[in-house]
Specification:
Elements: H1 23-32, H2 45-53
InterPro entries: FAD-bd_PCMH-like_sf, FAD-bd_PCMH_sub1, Mopterin_DH_FAD-bd
Organism: Candidatus Infernicultor aquiphilus
GO molecular function: flavin adenine dinucleotide binding; oxidoreductase activity
Amino acid sequence: MRKLQTNTKILASEFEYFAPHTLEEALDLLAKYQDKKAKILAGGTDLLVKMKTTNLKLD
């Protein structure tokens, strides 16, 4: 496998990430941040890559 050498800087949108351990914690976070349009991220590897490499913005 070759590693691509580049001078390109990748800037992701600013966001907060929480990792609740229970359903109750997850629901509390959703309620707390509903005005900020909180989203649930399950897995999310692809989403994080797209945020770094494209113009994908979270609302």
